[in-house]
UniProtKB/TrEMBL annotation:
Residues in Amidohydrolase domain copies: 346-426
Family of this protein: Belongs to the metallo-dependent hydrolases superfamily. DHOase family. Class I DHOase subfamily.
Binding site for Zn(2+) 1: 310
Residues involved in Zn(2+) 2 binding: 184
Name of this protein: Dihydroorotase
Catalytic activity: (S)-dihydroorotate + H2O = N-carbamoyl-L-aspartate + H(+)
Enzyme Commission number(s): 3.5.2.3
CDD domains (UniProt xref): DHOase_IIa (cd01317)
Protein purpose: Catalyzes the reversible cyclization of carbamoyl aspartate to dihydroorotate.
Catalytic-site annotation from UniProt: 310
Cofactor: binding details: Binds 2 Zn(2+) ions per subunit.
Length: 432
């Protein structure tokens, strides 16, 4: 995958979110890794030159939560189309969810996804295996064998493990294998028939609501089980102020617990649903504006570790329905960075700290070598202009599905160049 010639990025605004360092300079790539970086970089005579023109050069984004249809639902998204969408959005590594057909609960299927991704995807794809067999929440999957086959984490995707004994057993086994458990914190019994955030707005729309307690009770239970077992645990996405307080308390006790937030819960709130707009039907649901602000504060304070796209492609047949009947989910790989940059533009967070949540922290939690501008680090890099304005046209998205909540939204920040393992896989300068 590497380029035969070294590549020099010059005239760049270098941002290393791992150290917080920001400076003008250049970066030299050779044999798929960063050979040199800093204000003074000498290029080899045969180096290919990429003039960044003052744009930001940073590590590529690492998205810890993306649903991909392949195998079993290639009409929604393939590994190839997901890779193209990711590259255009600056995502160089995708963690794919196990909600496929068949479910990723067998080492042979993990091996298939890895091979298929190597053959068809232009970005890194790291599959997460099922936490329980068939995603049924009843019997723990073979964590050791699945990890040996290449699974990077264990999760039941959009399903929660309601049986506390099963979760306790999984966390205990995960501790012994130093594996990461990623859990969707939502009690399905409390969710019931709910389709959006419980409150005044849901009542006005005549839609059944989902209380915050559906999230907080499951999260509180999980944290207690982490304290009991010592297993590494990551709450996939939190969405309300009470959840942030629970995670903060767990971290204060020194528990091995981290958490993420969907870009949708940082950039949008329940009012965006408007007149039953199904592209805004998500899980967890869009919350009240006070909760959105609490999520931003928790991100700034380091309580929330990572931002995910929660990329979940749905076709027309599953979204062009009455709100209560439509499937949850929105595509997000291609808009993750642009939507997140709204927080920088609003002066709520610095760009290095934002990139840390999009790149460095996911790498640290997953045990990956990326997420930093350092000699010897993988050359998974992006060049982007954080101030380029554009209006999103969903028809131009590279994802096979077009269910984006940002259609016709005014956004700022576009990726110019994406490099994976030393090879340029996306170059907007050559796109007509």
């Amino acid at each position: 995958m590497t380029s035969d010639r070294p590549i020099l990025f010059k005239n760049a605004r270098l941002i290393d979110p791992a150290s917080g360092r920001e400076e003008r300079g250049g970066l030299l790539v050779r044999d798929g890794v960063i050979e040199d970086v800093g204000p003074q970089v000498n290029a080899a005579a045969d180096a290919e030159i990429v003039d960044c023109g003052g744009q930001v050069l940073s590590p590529g984004l690492i998205d810890m939560r993306a649903f991909i249809g392949e195998p079993g639902a290639a009409h929604r998204e393939t590994l190839k189309s997901a890779g193209e969408a990711a590259a255009a959005g600056g995502v160089t590594t995708i963690v794919s969810m196990p909600d496929t057909n068949p479910v990723l609960d067998d080492p042979a299927i993990i091996d298939f996804v890895l091979r298929r991704a190597r053959d068809t995807s232009i970005v890194n794809v790291r599959p997460a295996a099922a936490l329980t067999k068939g995603l049924k929440g009843e019997e723990m999957a073979e964590i050791g064998l699945l990890q040996e086959a290449g699974a990077i984490a264990f999760t039941d995707g959009a399903r929660s493990v309601t049986n506390a004994q099963v979760m306790r057993r999984a966390l205990t086994y995960a501790r012994d294998f130093d594996a990461l458990i990623v859990h969707h914190v939502e009690d399905p019994d409390l969710v019931g028939q709910g389709v959006m955030n419980e409150g005044e707005f849901a009542a006005r729309l005549g839609l059944p609501g989902i209380p915050r307690e559906a999230e907080t009770l499951m999260l509180e239970r999980d944290i207690r089980l982490v304290r009991l077992t010592g297993g590494r645990y990551h709450a996939a996405m939190i969405s309300c102020a009470d959840s942030a307080e629970i995670v903060q308390a767990a971290k204060a006790r020194g528990l091995p617990a981290t958490c993420g937030v969907s870009i949708n819960n940082l950039a949008l709130n329940e009012n965006d649903i408007g007149h039953y707009r199904t592209f805004f039907k998500l899980s967890p649901p869009l919350r009240h504006e006070e909760d959105r602000q609490a999520m931003i504060d928790a991100l700034v304070d380091g309580i929330i570790d990572v931002i995910v796209s929660d990329h979940n492609p749905q076709d027309v047949e599953t979204k062009r329905l009455p709100f209560a009947e439509a499937e949850d989910g929105a595509v997000g790989l291609e808009t993750l960075l642009s939507a997140a940059l709204r927080l920088v533009q609003a002066e709520r967070i610095s760009l290095p700290k934002l990139l840390r949540a999009l790149s460095t922290r996911p790498a640290e939690i997953l045990g990956l070598p990326g997420g930093r501008l350092r000699r010897g680090a993988p050359a998974d890099l992006i060049v982007f202009d954080p101030e380029t304005p554009y209006v999103l046209d969903k028809r131009q998205l590279r994802s096979l599905s077009k269910n984006t909540p940002f259609d016709e939204a005014r956004l700022e920040g576009q990726v110019t160049v994406t490099m994976v393992a030393g090879r340029i896989v996306f170059d907007r300068r050559t796109v007509s």
